[in-house]
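ARCHIVE CARD
Drawer: 12
Card no.: 0347
Subject: one protein chain, sequence and derived structure
Cross-reference: see card 0346
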Amino acid sequence: MLRRAFVLAAAVAIVACVNPVVAEEAKAGTHEGKVVKAEAGKLTMTDKDGKEHSHKVGADVKVTCDGKECKLEELKAGSTVKVTVEKKDDKSQITKIEAKKAE
């Protein structure tokens, strides 16, 4: 029984280390980083400290690329990104994503 518990704990630890993307509820305000991946409804980015995280992105979120309106899926890996989050109905939601080409 003890061995089974140890194996289970080790497996959980390995999965946690292998998958560093952590979906987290964003805090109100803005934060900046770099795009890792952008796909329908989801933005994965690194923050200024290099920590990777992801956000759910609603269809009504305003997305701009170099000041021009674009689609979330058009964001390129390595582009700098500024995400604006606001409290709505007691939940934090992304309201705007501003991206600039990678230099």
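Annotation on reverse: Residues 38 and 98 are 13 Å apart (CA to CA). The domain at 21-100 is CATH 2.40.50.320 (OB fold (Dihydrolipoamide Acetyltransferase, E2P)).
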